[in-house]
Design goal:
single chain; mainly beta; 7 helices
Length: 1161
């Protein structure tokens, strides 16, 4: 055999061997089990139904002491055991620990069904015959009604400079019929690193959702990720995202009645939270969302949020009302919803609660016939107290939680522990100190001394002037805190070395309900509910108030009111409702709507007691026209009573439209009396193309002391009127031009007096388009003036624009996006987390050789095997007010499409084209005019908070020509980040010229010339600052030897110099590479590349700079090998193999290999 063939055979066999090991290791036949058996001498006992792996059986007595194996006779493959005749007893109870194969070696295995043997056994080719009946019973996956798409892959990466890394990826969708009337719907997506979608679009894509749903007309079974919601207006309200099993089954009877059963058993993916946000005038955010116990840096379940402003549901998206970052729990409002300090902002969401595993169960049975519907529901949601996650509770912490009872707000627990010194962690020592004659003990001080840095401490943000520690500026890889002495017994810090332990909780509710029809027009509904809420399942005392009761009763009558021969009848609907909630009744999700407490004068949650709520309403309606009148009565606790009289209407009178929505409230308790008038009215006239209208809003709330009749400070009043011109019924698109005027009154000298006035002017355009243009925009200007002399006038500007156009026969194509608003920017900090080598993005060098990881010792990895750390960002509680703007522009200029087919001058001009992409985002502390102007880029650092700027321009000549082409490419990237330790700046600029020439039909030359500048600046780590200028020339020869084989030779010479330091470090680099690619269409692709790099660099004391200039290689001679193979296995599988090797004269040979298999469906 030829040497090359021998080498190829060895390589192939090695690859098959590695792949086989990978497949076997991924299957995992080692299945460890435990059981207890009574073993006798006279009878063999079966260990397992599967064959036991020889040598894996270990025997123990009842005290878990190992037993003498010679007393037992074990046949592992048959999986049986008995006592030997030499055993000291006739029977013995033992504990067995063993492992099994995934099969029984003595169980017959048939490749084909023996029942299909129809032929002569003496003729092997005629033994199995597939009959027509057999073919009908065989399910052909390809010919079925099951539609599938996606892929699944497994890969393994290894090398002599990293550990073995296993990767997996699955993306599978199934939909179709299974047979026997059943259908399937499945979406299985699984990756090593789950991703959360960006919350800047109206529609979200699920990146890591796994579910299988099998269903027919009566039954539905869902396993995996799903959501359940109680749509019924009931005492049991919930909307949950779950992971588990959900079953629904319905049965119909001959008398037209039906029975429906629903059951869910799952793990809750998130915890419900309703959070109120106090907006700042004109401040669009970001606003931080926190957990129920004040947890920061929470992860929001994607798509679970509902955002309300003044009780109205908002729309997600950059051209909507808000965008949300699910991963860090921050929400930003767009220019379509510019906030004022008068707005009421509420966000409902679910977040990933890491304190405990949480179980959830729901069961409901519903029976319905022609006249009635009855149902019984049970809901359970509870923390599994034996499965704490973050933190894992110690025995002392569990005992502490048992002792606090239901006072969960007092569960503050010291969060420090003494451990052996670990240089990879931020550690502290404990000292005593004397300040102004007062001694303070047990003070934590950051230390890197192995002799005393033995304390691991967790600090919690407790609020300004509530803690004795503040965050310190440090180069440590992690946050460092320092102690500050109290001043006049007032703490001067905002962090404390303690954590708020969250006790496990449990919620349950049982609900019984009925809806009955009486005659043709009347319905009666009733509900009873029993709730249980245990705030601390660790505690056993003070559990008298965990149970609560609730009841509902309602009657509705709906019938024709005014009959007409030419139109649908006017109808009248009357309703009477009563609801009772006991003082300890606890709903699963909030029972009342967002505005309930405000609209009924409930100023705080301190009113505890039984609640009675009744209403009487009349609704006269016809199609979309209606007039509603309601009377509500609410009593809570012993002394609170409220009466509300409400009127709502919507009348379309020809071209006129009239809307009213208002109420008058009277409420009182022992200490105060409340009168609240609220009204919103709207009037508009439709001219066809346009419509004119006006809105009027007024609120007046006067709260008086019951004893003195004095007006309380929380009384207020405002009136607001708005004039608008908007699209009419015959206009294609949406627009509105408006002017809004508002007057506010506050309490002064026991009366409501003028406080401020506001003027707002705006334009809103949505999806206005024609053949060549499309535009959406929101523009707003607001001015608020105060009647007093100590509050300054406030000016707010907000806008966004999304415009696209295609002009002059597609010669000019552009897309423009612009947004301007004010907001706030949090200080950010980063740290590096160690991961498996080869999976990270950063490498650590102990430059000062102190054994401690410091932030200025981490470098960006240039090769995969170098990366052992990932960079993680942490958002702090420090914010700075900013003026923000975003602007992006893409512009493509070329000759009209028709000119390409012309001759002469038009043909010549068609050879030229230009593509420009520009983007800038900036946030300034002051000077809003400069902030909102996207073309003002060069700003002083004292104004900039953060900025991100990128520009790419490509001017092409003869683009797409098979003979020659030339391109001039300019790139510019700048960024500035606001960190806790100061600003960090990065900049990269480059200009290059790329010329391509086909020398012959199968050979071409490519020449590239370029210059570049790369800069980095840090306020904290000035020793890492640099400004590297460089230039290079690259020449390559490309030969297409056949239709599927390409060979490339490349040479590159480059120079770099750091102009920022006194040493002015220089690098001279020569690169020579050869690359060959073999591509067999639909079968295989092989790419081999070998490179030689010679680096000559001047001496430098800045090791970080040297690593950056050498781009991860070493000084002197470097050799790099790359091999990539992709091969099709059958029709639906692909095998990929890659190898990378590096060698320099001063380092060992680095080998990295990767093998993966991908199956396509």
């Amino acid at each position: 055999m030829e040497p090359f063939q021998m080498l190829l055979k060895k390589y192939f066999l090695s690859l098959v061997f590695l792949f086989a090991i990978f497949i076997l290791s991924s299957q995992g036949f080692d299945n460890e089990k435990n059981r207890v058996l009574v073993i006798t001498k006279d009878k063999e006992q079966q260990i397992d139904s599967l064959s036991v792996i020889p040598g894996s059986v270990i025997l123990y007595d009842q005290n878990d002491k190992p037993l003498f194996v010679d007393f037992f006779e074990i046949d592992e493959l048959k999986s049986v055991i008995r006592l030997s005749d030499d055993a000291p007893a006739d029977s013995m109870e033992v504990k067995l620990s063993y492992s099994t194969f995934n099969f029984n070696i003595f169980q017959p295995i048939n490749r084909k069904d023996p029942s299909t043997i129809h032929g002569d056994l003496s003729n092997p080719q005629a033994v199995f015959r597939i009959t027509r009946e057999d073919r009908q019973n065989v399910w052909d996956f390809r010919d079925s009604d099951l539609h599938r798409s996606g892929s699944i892959s497994r890969g393994i990466s290894m090398g002599n400079a990293q550990n073995v890394i296993v990767n997996s990826d699955m993306n599978l969708q199934l939909e179709g019929k299974l047979g026997s009337g059943f259908n399937i719907l499945a979406a299985i997506t699984d990756r090593n690193i789950p991703l959360q979608p960006d919350g800047n679009t109206q529609q979200l894509q699920d990146f890591d959702k796994v579910f299988i749903k099998i269903y027919n007309e009566k039954t539905s079974i869902t396993a995996g990720d799903f959501s359940i919601k109680n749509n019924r207006d009931a005492l049991l309200k919930f909307n949950k995202n779950l992971l588990g099993l959900f079953v629904e089954h319905s049965t119909s009877f001959k008398d037209s009645s039906s029975l429906k059963v629903s059951s869910a058993l799952s793990v809750a993916k998130g915890k419900y939270r309703r959070q109120s946000i106090t907006p700042v005038e004109g401040n669009q955010g970001p606003y931080r969302l926190v957990g129920e116990s004040g947890e920061s840096n929470i992860v929001i379940i994607a798509g679970s949020e509902k955002v309300y402003v003044d009780g109205l549901l908002q729309e997600r998206g950059e051209m909507g009302d808000y965008i949300i970052d699910y991963n860090i729990g921050e929400i930003v409002f767009t220019a379509r919803q510019v906030l004022t300090k008068d707005r009421r902002v509420v966000v409902e969401f679910e977040y990933s609660d890491k304190h405990y595993s949480r179980s959830l169960a729901f069961n409901e049975v519903e029976f319905e016939n022609k006249k009635s519907k009855s149902y019984i529901s049970f809901f359970h949601e509870g923390d599994v107290k034996s499965q704490s996650i973050q933190p894992i509770l110690s025995a002392q912490q569990k005992q502490f939680l048992r002792g606090i009872g239901d006072d969960v707000n007092s569960a503050w627990y010291p969060s420090f522990d003494s451990l052996l010194y670990n240089p990879d962690e931020v550690r502290y020592m404990m000292v005593d100190t004397l300040v102004q004659g007062q001694n303070y003990d047990s003070i934590f001080v950051y230390s890197i001394n192995p002799d005393n840095a033995i304390y691991r401490v967790s600090f919690t943000y407790v609020g300004k002037n509530r803690g004795n520690y503040v965050q310190d500026i440090s180069s440590a890889n992690g946050r460092v805190f320092k102690w500050v002495a109290p001043l006049d017994n007032v703490p001067q810090g905002d962090f404390s070395p303690e954590i708020l332990l969250v006790p496990p909780q449990k919620k349950q509710m049982l609900q019984v309900g009925n809806e009955t029809k009486i005659g043709k027009h009347t319905n009666i509904n009733s509900e009873l509910a029993l709730s249980l809420f245990d705030k601390n399942t660790f505690a056993k005392d003070n559990k008298d108030d965990v149970f609560g009761t609730a009841a509902r009763f309602g009657i509705t009558d709906d019938r024709a009111f005014i009959k007409s021969d030419t139109a649908e009848s006017w109808r009248i609907s009357t309703n009477l409702n009563y609801e009772f909630l006991s003082r300890s009744f606890e709903p699963i999700d909030p029972l009342r709507d967002l505005e309930f407490q405000r609209n009924f004068g409930i100023m705080s949650d301190s009113l505890i007691g039984n609640q009675h709520f009744s209403s009487l309403g009349v609704n006269v309606y016809k199609k979309s026209n209606f007039i509603k009148s309601n009377i509500y009565q609410l009593s809570k606790a012993k002394d609170f009573k409220a009466w509300q009289y409400a009127l709502n209407s919507n009348l379309n009178l020809g071209r006129w439209t009239v809307l009213t929505d208002g109420f008058m409230l009277f409420s009182d308790n022992e200490s105060e009396e409340n009168k609240f008038l609220k009204n919103h009215a709207s009037l508009s006239y439709d001219f066809g193309k346009i419509a004119l209208g006006t809105n009027w809003r007024v609120e007046n709330q006067q709260i008086r002391d019951s004893q003195t009749d004095s007006l309380k400070e929380n009384s207020f009043a405002f009136s607001e009127i708005e004039f608008m011109i908007k699209q009419g019924s015959n206009f294609n698109g949406n627009f509105m031009l408006y002017a809004n005027f508002r007057n506010d009154e506050k309490v002064h000298l026991n009366s409501l007096e003028h406080y401020s006035n506001m003027q707002e002017y705006g334009l809103k355009i949505s999806n206005l388009s024609n053949k060549n243009h499309s535009i959406s925009t929101n523009i707003l200007y607001r001015e608020r003036n105060y009647s007093n002399n100590f509050e300054k006038s406030e000016y707010v500007f907000g806008s966004n624009l999304d415009y696209s156009a295609s002009l002059f026969d597609k010669a000019l194509r552009l897309n423009t996006f612009y947004e301007a608003a004010s907001g706030q920017e949090p200080k950010k900090e980063y740290y590096f987390l160690k991961v498996a080598k080869g999976t990270g993005d950063y490498v650590w060098f102990d430059y000062n050789e102190n054994g401690v990881q410091e932030l200025d010792e981490f470098e960006q990895a240039f090769y995969s095997d170098q990366g052992e750390y990932v960079k993680l960002w942490r958002i702090t509680n420090d914010f700075i007010s900013t003026y923000n703007s975003k602007y992006s522009q893409s512009l493509q200029v070329s000759a009209p499409q028709s000119w390409k087919k012309k001759s002469g001058f038009k043909k010549f001009i068609s050879r030229f084209s230009n593509q420009t992409n520009y983007r800038i985002e900036k946030k300034l502390q002051s000077n809003p005019l400069s902030a909102y102007n996207p073309f003002v880029a060069d700003l002083p650092d004292s104004l900039l908070v953060t900025s991100l700027q990128s520009l790419r321009n490509v001017f092409s000549i003869n683009q797409g020509s098979p003979l020659w082409s030339n391109e001039f490419i300019y790139n510019e990237n700048k960024s500035k980040v606001f960190l806790t330790n100061g600003f960090e700046n990065r900049e990269f600029n480059s200009f290059s010229n790329v010329f391509r020439l086909n020398v012959f039909k199968k050979h071409s030359l490519r020449n590239e010339l370029g210059i570049s500048e790369k800069a980095y600046g840090s306020e904290q780590f000035e020793n890492r600052n640099y400004n590297i200028v460089g230039n290079y020339i690259e020449q390559s020869f490309i030969s297409l030897l056949s239709s599927n084989f390409r060979f490339t030779i490349l040479y590159k010479y480059s120079e770099k110099q750091n102009t920022l330091s006194v040493e002015r470090e220089q690098l001279f680099a020569n690169l020579l590479s050869a690359e060959a690619t073999l591509n067999v269409v639909s079968k295989a692709m092989i790419n081999f590349k070998t490179s030689y790099v010679k680096n000559v660099i001047s001496n430098s004391s800045n090791q970080s700079l040297v690593f950056e200039m050498l781009e991860g290689l070493n000084e002197g001679h470097n050799f790099i090998l790359n091999l990539a193979i992709q091969s099709a296995i059958g029709e639906n599988m692909q095998l990929s193999f890659s190898y990378e090797g590096r060698k320099s004269l001063t380092s060992r040979f680095i080998h990295i290999g990767n093998v993966s298999v991908r199956a396509y469906f």
